[in-house]
Every structure is written in structure tokens, then in C-alpha cells.
Amino acid sequence: MSATLAVLRKDLQLAWRDRSGWLAAAAFAAISVLTYAFAFDLAAREVRPLLPGVLWTTFLFAGIFAAGQSFQREAEQGTFDAMLLAPVPATAIYFGKALSNLLALLVVEVALLLLATILFDTTLITADLVVIVAVGTVGYVSLTTLLSTLGSRARGRAVLLPALALPLLVPLLIAAVRATGASLGEPAGTAPWTLLLVVFALWSSLGAALLFPMVVER
Amino acid sequence: MTAASAPAAIETRALTKRFGTLTVVDAVDLRLAPGSKTALLGANGAGKTTLLGLLSTLIAPSDGEAWIAGESLTRPSAALRRRVGVLAHLPMLYEELSALENLTFFARLYAVRDAGPRIEQMLRTVGLWRRRDEPTHVFSRGQHQRLALARALLHAPDVLLLDEPETGLDVEGVALLDELVLTAPGLTVLAATHRVDHIGAWAEAVVRLDRGRVVEDTTGEAAVAAPRAATMHEASR
Fold first, then answer.
1. Exposure pattern of B150-162 as b/e (b: 16+ CB <10 Å)?
2. Which member of A13, A79, A81 has the closest CB to residue B58?
3. Which of A85, A93, A95 to substitute to test the interface with B, most B CBs within 10 Å?
4. Element (H, E) at B27
5. H or E element: which one contains B68?
6. Which of the residues B22, B77, B92, B162 would you substitute to probe the A interface, choosing the one with the greatest number of A C-beta atoms within 10 Å?
């Protein structure tokens, strides 16, 4: 637990010192939502069903944008090896890194929801939606943190993370978009999308934590 | 475990590492006594860095076995990792963090007791206490290496694995390295180096690798005679 907190604290310190990665992700997200706002009148009833897709596509690419950076830096500076040499379980390192990515992405997402609330004239900060975004982000970050570890030592790391992550994230995206739509009063069918989202988040968190020690072994 | 009664500080039996079809470390047998200082020699690509990676637990062996102080590296425990320090090619430091923040982070990972005084002691020893709050990206190569040395020794390891430790160090830095590590009593040192002219000053024995195999090993010989013999051997090559 103390190792996880040490890694989390250090990663948040690094994210604050070098804000370029997360600022770029936030800027990308803001520009995307602004573009959508100009392209479609999402406040109009007939195009409202697009809103969940707009939000989750933006979250997804903003997260992918920033997720690879933390591990890439660690690999380049040799600090990832330094952490693996320490007398702490690899899973503790994983949880520390996943938590820091989660917190940083949640900050970007909340800012984006506030911006979208203004642009689309729709209340997006509701208890339902916050829970759906938080659970979806847990599932998303669990998987991308693992995959960015895998990609950090590869030559084609810039394309490896999206190429590996996007197909694996399809179930999460479908569930997240549908659950978000339902919370905004759009027809989403009868499937338990929020439950599926919770199951995916649990599965990816546990699976990634169990796989992480194997992924980092050379 | 080992055949001998007292466990060696480092022992390997037929330790092998293959990457695909390439055998980088090939059936290496070593036995280093506690407190011994051994130079690991060999041309580029001889397998020195991989051997150090195996002994540090960073790389898993393909075959063979290795022990640190009698404990197997096959499933390294936290206690075993606490006994080993590593100074590698890269300083393994966060460029955006200060010297103090870097050591504080690693002290937390290693659960160093009385971390504050220990960090201050290490920073004073390597001559960086006055620059403790500066981010390390402003440091020179030599200062990075000094801080990396402080990081490697922070948790007071019994065994120190070094990969070309003199890289980037000035004369004063090399003297510091000699004092803190290479001639430190009780500390077992295995150091890969190309500074053959310098090993006579500290090495009690020499292990030479060639294409992953041990081609020279003086660890079993008389401690005093070894460095001179090693230096002469180097000079003759």
C-alpha cells in the first residue's frame, strides 16, 4: 500500500511539474468538443443521441494521448527499471501508476463535461453520469496503463498503444455510450449497460493487475 | 542451495540467458565471496550488462540458477532485493524531480528507516546537499552519476552491481566512487568496466566474458595477487 502511494504521489508530482502531456490531452478534448459543437447543434432534439458518442470518443482519444507518455518517460530515463528493482510487488507499482492516470484523466473529463454543459445547453454533471464516467474511466485506465507498459519498450510505441487498446475497449465503449445515453434520457434498449460497464471495469482492473508482473518481466 | 558451508555473496550455476536464438549469457558459473571486489571485463556485447541484469533480478534467466547471499533469484523476495543495489548505464533518476525528491521517492520504495537523516547523509557524501532542491535535469553528467550513486547506496545494500560506474565522473567523482564503493569494506562489488587501467586500484579478482561465456575467472585465486595479474593480463592483450 505504501509503495502504491509512493508511486502515485511521485507520478502526480511529475504530472504537475511537466504538464505538457495532460495539457495537450485537455486541449485536444476541448478542441474536439468545440468542433462538434459547431458541426452539430447538439442542443437540438434530433441530434442529441450523438452526445454520448461525442463525449466518449473525446475521452478515449484524450486518454490515449496522455497514457503512453508516463511509461515512455520512465522507460527512457531507466526509472521504470529502478522501480522494478525495489523490494515492492510489481502490482503495487501498477496500481500507483493506474491511480495517477485515473485521477489526471478524471480531471480532464470533469473539465470537458463542464465545457460540454455550456456548449450543448444540457446538464451533464449529474450523479448518474458522474458514476458512469468514473466507472468507465476505471475500466479504460486499467487497460491502457497495462498496454502502455507493454508498448513502452517497443519501437513502434506511438502506434502500438492505440492499435492494441482500441479493439479491446470496444465492449467498454458500447456499454459506456449506451449507459450515458440512458442517463440523458435517450433510448438505450433494455440491456443492463451500467452493470456491463461495472463488470468490464472489474475485469480489466483485476486482469491488468494480475498480468502486469508478467508484462514487465524480461 | 550451495555446496559450500558459508553462502557466497553471489553464486551462479550454468546461468544462461537467451533472447530468441541468441545466447547472450552462456552457462556462467561464478562464486564471489562476501565483501569481495570483482571487475567484470569483456568487449562490447560480451554479455556483461545482461549478466548484471540477471543478478539484479531485472532479467529472468532462461536456464541455470543464481543466489545472492544464499537466496535464490528464481523467485526473488523483497528481503533479497533490499540487499542489492544497482548503478547502471542510465542514472535511473527523474529529471523533473529534485535530488531530494528523487531520493525521498526511492527511500519510500525501499522503506528506509530514518529516511530524512539518511538522505541528507548521502547527499552530503556525494557533494549535492547544497543543490538538493534543484531539478536533476540541470545537473551535469557527473552530478547525475553522483546522485545515482547516492540512490544505489541509499538503502545500504550488501551487494552492489555496477555497470561502467566511472562514466561521466571527473577525477574527484572517481575518487568518491573508490572511497564509497570500490574499496568499501564489507560491500560485495561486481563492476562491469572498460577502465582496465583503474581496476588495479580496487579489484581483488577479475571475471572476463567473451560472447556470454566466462573465459577468465580469478575469483578463486589469492586476493592480493589478482589485481596485478589482471592488469598485466589486460596490458598483454
1. bbbbbbebbbbbb
2. A81
3. A85
4. strand B22-32
5. strand B63-68
6. B92
Cβ <8 Å between B108 and A17: no
Q: Tell me how far apart the alpha carbons of residues A171 and A181 are, in angstroms, rounded to a whole number.
A: 15
Cβ(B116)–Cβ(A93) below 8 Å: no
CA distance B188 to B47: 20
- State the angle between helix axes of A2-17 and A51-77 in degrees (0 to 180), rounded to the nearest 10: 100
CA dihedral B106, B110, B116, B118 (to 10 degrees): -100
pLDDT band at B221 (very low <50, low <70, confident <90, very high): low
B125: its cell numbers: 557524501
Q: By the 8 A CB rule, do B232 and B78 touch?
A: no
Chain Cα centroid distance, residue B110? 17
Looking at residue B135, what DSSP letter applies? B
B147 touches chain A (CB under 8 A): no
Residues of A in contact with B91 (CB under 8 A): 77-78
The string of DSSP letters for A33-101 reads HHHHHHHS-TTSGGGGGGHHHHHHHHHHHHHHHHHHHHHHHHHHHTHHHHHHHSSS-HHHHHHHHHHHH
Give me the interface pTM, i.e. the ipTM.
0.85
Q: What is the enclosing helix (H) or strand (E) of B16?
A: strand B10-19
In tens, the pLDDT along A100-137 reads 999 989 998 999 999 988 888 888 888 889 999 999 99
Chain segment A157-190, per-residue pLDDT in tens: 667 777 888 888 899 999 999 999 888 887 766 6
With H, G, I as helix, E, B as strand and everything else as coil, classify residue A127: helix
Compute the nearest-CA separation of B104 from chain A (Å): 9
Q: Kindly report, residue by residue over B86-126, the tens digit of the pLDDT.
A: 998 888 999 999 999 999 999 999 999 999 999 999 999 99
- Are the C-beta atoms of B74 and B29 separated by less than 8 Å? no
Residues in CB range of A130: below 8 A, 6 or more apart = none
What does the DSSP assignment read for B155-223?
A: T--SEEEEESTTTT--HHHHHHHIIIIIT-TT-EEEEE-S-HHHHTTT-SEEEEEETTEEEEE-TTS-T
3-state secondary structure of A142: helix
Whole-angstrom Cα distance, residue A50 to residue A40? 9
